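Hey, weird one. I pasted the TetR/AcrR family transcriptional regulator sequence into the form twice and got a warning about non-standard characters only the second time. First submission, copied straight from the form history:
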Amino acid sequence: MSRVSQAQAIENRRRAVAAASQLFRERGVNGISVADLMKSIGLTTGGFYKQFASKEALVSEAAQAAFGDLELLLAAFDTDHGDHDTARGALVDYYLSTEHRDQPGTGCPTAGFAGDVAREPTAEEVRETYATGVEHFAAWMATDTDDSLPVVATLVGALLLARATAGTELSDKILESTHKAVTAPPES
C-alpha cells in the first residue's frame, strides 16, 4: 500500500471538509454517511479515520468552513455594493430568492445546519461553531438602530419554510411576503 504525502493528506482533508460542508447543508448530517462522503471525493472510508477523530469532528469543521464561506460572501456583498446599507439590501434580495432556496448545498449555513444542530444535544463543539456563525451574521446585518437578530431569525425561518414547501405556491409566497416585510420602511 502506498502512503500519501503530507501535502496530499492536507489536500484530501480540505476536499473532505469542503464536500461535507456542501453535502451536510444539502442532505443533513444524518443524510450522508462517511462512506458516501469519501466516495464523493474518490477516497476510501479508511482515509477518513486517518484525518478525523469522528464524524462529529468533521461536522464541526464543515460548519466552520461553511460559516467561513458566509463571511467571504458577506465581504463580497460589501465590496460589490460600495456601502453597507446597499449590501445589506442586496443580501436580503439574494437570501430570499428562489436561487438560494433551491441550492441548499451552497447556501447559508445558518439555515443549512439549523435542524441538525438543534437535534443533536451532544454536539457542543458544533453548537459553539454554529452560535458564533449566527452572531457574526447578525452583526453584519445590524444597523445603527437594531442588533438584527430578529431579522436573521426571520430570514432563516423563511428560507427553511420555503425549502420545506418547495414546489408549491406557498414556497414562493413565503419568500415574497417575507421580503416585503423585511424591506418595508419602519413605521413612524
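That's the output from the first submission. The warning seems to come from a hidden character in my clipboard, not from the data itself. The mean pLDDT is 91.
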